[in-house]
Every structure is written in C-alpha cells, then in structure tokens.
Amino acid sequence: MSIGERLFAGVYDRLMAGEEKAGLGDHRAEVVGQASGAVLEIGGGTGANLPYYRDDVMSLTITEPAEPMARRLARKLEGHSLPAEIVRAPAEQLPFEDGRFDTAISTLVLCTVDDQDRALQELRRVLKPGGRLLFIEHVRSEKPRVARWQDRVNPVHKVIGCGCNCNRQTLDRVKAAGFTVGQVADDSLHKAPPWVRPLIVGMAQN
After folding, report:
1. How far apart are CA 190 and CA 202, in angstroms?
2. Which domains does the chain have, with CATH numbers?
3. R_g (Cα) of the chain, nearest Å
4. Per-residue 3-state assignment (H helix, E strand, C coil) for the chain
5. Which of these, 70, 72, 115, lies nearest to 88 by C-alpha position?
6. Which of 3, 70, 140, 159 is the most exposed place for a label (fewest CB within 10 A)?
C-alpha cells in the first residue's frame, strides 16, 4: 500500500464532488439503476455507485484491488442494506466461475486497469451469455487536436491520477473483446480538466 494510494483514496470523494454535481451523479443513477440479478461491479473505489442500486439487484459483488479504497468502501457499505460483498481483486484476475453474473458495472475504471483487453475478457468470462456490461468511462477524444493533447499530458496525468489514463480508446476495445455494443451516449465529464472530459455512457451485451 503506497502513500500515493492512501492519499488518492482520502481525497477522491472531494476531488470528484464537482463532477458528481455537474452530471456524473445523474449518469450513475441512469446506468447503475439498470443493474439487475447477480451484479458485479469492478473497481468499486469509495462506493460512489452504492446509492443508485435498486431492488432488482439480487446480489452485489464489488471488486477493489486497492486496500485504502476497499476500507472506505467497507465503511460506506455499513450504511446500506445491499446484499453486497467486497472482494480484493484486480479486474484482470477475477476470482469467479464462468457465467456467474447477470450484470457487470464499470464506472471510470477501464481507464485505470493495467491491461484493458484482459480485463474485458475477464468480464466476458464471468458474465452469463446475454449478460450486460453497463459503463461510464472517460475516453480518448475524437477531435484530433484534443487527442494529441491527451497523449502529451497522459504520462503526468497517470501519475497524478494513480494510474488513470486519459487517452484510451475504450469503446473500440469493448467491441474488440467481443461485446455487442448497444446504446452509447457521448457526453462530457463536466468540471473535470479538459483532457479528461470526453465521456461515453452505455451498455454492451455478452
């Protein structure tokens, strides 16, 4: 557990407060509110999605590899009646049997995983046939000038953001992993630095 991880976990909620009020919270409500059945959330962080789960969730498994985040997540879970458990595991190595989950949730996580392709393959493996991946992710801009800017600042942003990459073509990787992408909306992560703003919100089916 590094000092950086502890600091990042300690300031994360305050750091994201502006974005949450400026539209991210609404996106969470829309996306997480669709979850049903046996649900897997990867990279649960400090538990920002917890208020948005509905009664359609039969069980909730949240993975979080970082100990400081997992501790804060556990404290937040104490205030909810969700049938939930926390599992310390990275998205690239999910310790679950094939086809266990009906729904998977990824919100601002696929930017940070070490191996995005492997994480997506793991999500496909643990989802049932026809299971859904619901996501909110900031991505590489489709505007060439902004994308070049993202490439330049990404090495610094990755250090400041505790592993977060601002220039990943995540939707292309979701398709390449074999998911069938359904509805996807483009938006902006309002109040965030310009190189982090391009946002996609949507659903893909296994």
Report:
1. 17
2. 3-205 (3.40.50.150)
3. 16
4. CCHHHHHHHHHHHHHCHHHHHHHHHHHHHHHHCCCCEEEEECCCCCCCCHHHCCCCEEEEEEECCCHHHHHHHHHHHCCCCCCEEEECCCCCCCCCCCCCEEEEEEECCCCCCCCHHHHHHHHHHHEEEEEEEEEEEECCCCCHHHHHHHHHHHHHHHHHCCCCCCCCCHHHHHHHCCCEEEEEEEEECCCCCHHHCEEEEEEEEC
5. 70
6. 3
**pTM for the predicted model, two decimal places:** 0.94
Asked if residues 41 and 60 have their Cβ atoms less than 8 Å apart, the reply is: yes
The token duo for 166 is 């601002």
Could you tell me the two tokens for 39? 């649900």
Question: What is the spatial distance between Cα 171 and Cα 135, in angstroms, rounded to a whole number?
Answer: 10
Residue pLDDT, tens place only, 102-138: 999 999 999 999 999 999 999 999 999 999 999 999 9
